[in-house]
């Protein structure tokens, strides 16, 4: 049994795996695909496998994606070979929810203003601080991450409205609406957060009319995928001050081009696709992988968090 | 019955009072003490009354302080005249707890780094982000504000240790210690927050040894009063990197002098005594005052949140 990691866990994490599974041959090889033809299981961040790579495999039965996004995977090639794909749904939830709350609280409590005045050596108490408490938030994508954001927002006294394809009930959401009905609730939201994955349904889901429907004081935050909004629509909304702030962790083009107007706009916060960063990431991925590998070795063929390659999540 | 406000509520708030109490003569006079001798009740931020002012009063029975700090009040003169003092204990709790969480999450999720890179137009993903979740926090002063901070920290998965004079149980604290035993728990804290008032017991409570006992990675936050630590001790601790960050909302000398080293120190965040700021402040003070004034007019002589002038809180 050969398990190929296409990224490098820390030494102690590699040891943890070898100690736990003495019978397994682990390969930890970054940007080196020579072991793909022999691998039974591949553990990847999901951005490094091509259709050709999949064709080169002979024994591959399971791809564990140590990440949430699978849109860069060769879906058809994987489906054709009947390879099981699973991800680590939920392991981003703590850092991402903390990032969401960090950005919201920072803007509400005027931290950019406070930091600027320190740089200018100015004792300036004229902060325009406001409170998160009492706000209304819409969360596009109230899954594992979105519901964790919802849970924390509720602790701050925020009314949460989840928005997904079906409008079916979700955890930590006071209300739900479907994508089709989002225009009805946008006018009452102070905060709009998307953690949606990239799928056929979410691509360019938000249009100019959605931003026009939002309050002028609203904060929009995209921690999901950059293709949720066409960039020219997002830029227009901010240049026209349709809303107060956009916190963008993801962009149509990444890295964001050097000459993009966002860089110098006061109402746009550029977070360079880092909202899920955390020193605890690989450790948590292994916490998901290890019990699944034990089960796999005992004959189970359905790891937790299976991904439907057709649906896209 | 004459009620003197020594600050100016907004017009609609003044109207609210007049509509609610047509029989009361309200005076809203900023920096004008000519009405003090006639006033039955004074509503003040607590920083504008001298012993001489108190002596000049003839009818004054109740001072309502629309703030938490009463250390600038002429305690002896007030006690001598038997004037009842009450404050608005708790109305700072929402903005202050949000400020505390904003600063903590901002540092944990690397927002200063993210903001800096945007200013430099650099797409730099090498954030040293970490998580609030799983931390241990000590809260000096687990009263209304401290417990609200504790409640929110617990929602983020933080273990909370309250520290007060007696070590008696407090809300939203997983553990308690007394001031005398704080050195025993400081080495295990990732976060140390003080919201203590200025009293005989809290003045210079934290010494060099306390900062030396903290982790090098610890974040210290003072949202209470500037005399909790002598400034030269605080400065030493930060210049010697005894801890990772100090977030200071209060200082021995305010405004902080222009030439103070803090202004240019990367490990010190200067928040110019604004952590309690909120657009909702006066509104909430009136929400406390109005029912109390109704009760007072019906003969009650003990408003809610009475302050013990001897004890200092």
TrEMBL record, chains A, B:
Residues 12-307 form the D-isomer specific 2-hydroxyacid dehydrogenase catalytic domain. InterPro entries: D-isomer_2_OHA_DH_cat_dom, D-isomer_DH_CS, D-isomer_DH_NAD-bd, NAD(P)-bd_dom_sf. Residues 101-275 form the D-isomer specific 2-hydroxyacid dehydrogenase NAD-binding domain. Keywords: NAD, Oxidoreductase. The keyword NAD applies. Coiled coil: none annotated. The keyword Heme does not apply. Belongs to the D-isomer specific 2-hydroxyacid dehydrogenase family. PANTHER family: 2-HACID_DH_C DOMAIN-CONTAINING PROTEIN, D-ISOMER SPECIFIC 2-HYDROXYACID DEHYDROGENASE NAD-BINDING DOMAIN-CONTAINING PROTEIN. This is D-2-hydroxyacid dehydrogenase. It comes from Planococcus dechangensis.
